[in-house]
């Protein structure tokens, strides 16, 4: 569960995120919909402890991110598509991440299989396509078997097959009882992915509602 209370972020004189209050529950995919610049990434980064709120709090499993005991085991995140560079292989990248977080190396093979990268796991990441890079990012997010998953615009730039794959994965992860929070600027994408919807515009929450209810009302 993610609990956001009075969460605000100002950059200089500009308010990016303005007194947000919402809860993201386990067991369903919660979509975070809003146009570019609405404040989605800023909100997700504050939940993940990567940005400091100007005011308010964000709790993951009842604790602020900085107080999580083993963060990668409690929260997995895929942030805005940043390509994995360098000559390291996917397997090596994940093994380092696992070692740094006291996760058994066997788990690396499990997540490689889940994201379908086993066959290319020893190739250098710099040769990966956007879709393969995204799968590697998701493998990293799943490594600690976390109860909470945060995906920022995960389908951006992917082909239809990749989009369908991510959508199915997110729904399966939620069906397992995890908390899944996913952003998009595309209503059509959210309608196919999320069962609960948070709409954000200019840093304010505009709607917090079941997807079916939202579609019927709009
Ligand atoms: P979204 O993810 O919905 O596209 P963002 O959270 O990235 O929106 O941005 C929200 C607002 O905050 C935008 O106006 C953006 O320009 C501003 N912003 C984001 N990060 C910074 C930053 N590091 N410095 C200044 N302004 C920022
Ligand atoms: P199945 O036997 O049908 O694969 P699973 O429960 O193993 O059912 O998997 C359901 C979905 O959840 C799969 O898409 C898989 O990618 C994902 N999944 C299952 N377990 C984990 C896990 N521990 N960590 C990450 N993803 C998982």
Automatic annotation (TrEMBL):
Where does the source fall among the domains of life?
Bacteria
The alphabetical list of record keywords is: ATP-binding, Nucleotide-binding, Transport
The chain positions of domain ABC transporter read: 2-218
GO MF terms, alphabetically ordered: ATP binding
Family in the record? Belongs to the ABC transporter superfamily.
Q: What is this protein called?
A: ABC transporter ATP-binding protein
Q: Which organism is it from?
A: Actinocorallia aurantiaca
Q: Which residues of the full protein are shown?
A: 1 to 218 of 306
């Amino acid at each position: 569960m993610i609990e956001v209370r009075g969460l605000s972020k100002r950059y200089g004189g500009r308010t990016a995120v303005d007194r947000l209050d919402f809860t993201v529950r386990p067991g369903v995919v919660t979509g975070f919909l809003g146009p570019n610049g609405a404040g989605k990434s800023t909100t997700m980064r504050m939940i993940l402890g990567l940005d400091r709120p100007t005011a308010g709090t964000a709790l993951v499993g009842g604790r602020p991110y900085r107080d999580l005991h083993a963060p990668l085991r409690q929260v997995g995140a895929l942030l805005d598509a940043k390509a994995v560079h360098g000559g390291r292989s996917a397997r090596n990248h994940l093994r380092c991440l696992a070692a740094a977080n006291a996760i058994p190396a066997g788990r690396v093979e499990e997540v490689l299989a889940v994201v379908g990268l086993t066959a290319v796991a020893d190739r250098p990441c710099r040769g990966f396509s956007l879709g393969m890079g995204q799968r590697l990012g998701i493998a990293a997010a799943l490594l600690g078997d976390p109860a909470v998953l945060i995906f920022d615009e995960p389908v951006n730039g992917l082909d239809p097959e990749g989009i369908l794959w991510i959508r199915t994965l997110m729904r399966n992860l939620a069906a397992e009882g995890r908390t899944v929070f996913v952003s998009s600027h595309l209503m059509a994408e959210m309608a196919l992915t999320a069962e609960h919807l948070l709409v954000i515009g200019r840093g304010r929450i505009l709607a917090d509602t079941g997807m079916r209810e939202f579609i019927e009302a709009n």
